[in-house]
Write a structure and sequence with these properties.
Layout: E1 2-4, E2 21-28, E3 31-34, E4 50-51, E5 56-62, E6 66-71, E7 77-84, E8 87-92, H1 109-122
Parallel strand pairs: 1-8
Antiparallel strand pairs: 2-5, 3-4, 3-6, 6-7, 7-8
Length: about 120
Amino acid sequence: MLTLHALVGIRDYLPPVPTVATGGEALAGSTWQVAGYHAITKDLDRRQTYVSTFGDRIGVVPGARGRTIARTPEGVPVVAAGLSSRGRYAACGLGIGIGPGDTDVPLSPAEAVLLEGMLRWLGNR
């Protein structure tokens, strides 16, 4: 299962797998970085700072079964993933593919790599 932006568990949305991650605070800005090696981010440079298409990010709070995958440059987790009793779950607090005025926009190159990595990992490929 994959949730994006507010669906990680804020604004009246319940976190679907709290043992992996829950929603935290909305964070101004759109930059993010890889938090460390994980199969999801194996094709992204851990030394690089990336920019999401949306103007804010939702912080995530990794649960007992979750691991931080990406974070803000200040260190706040914005993507977490882990295993639950029902399978794999990734909570992505980035508003990928969302532009100004909540319009659909093309993914940034890094968002495309991140999304593909999440989908491959979720599908156990």
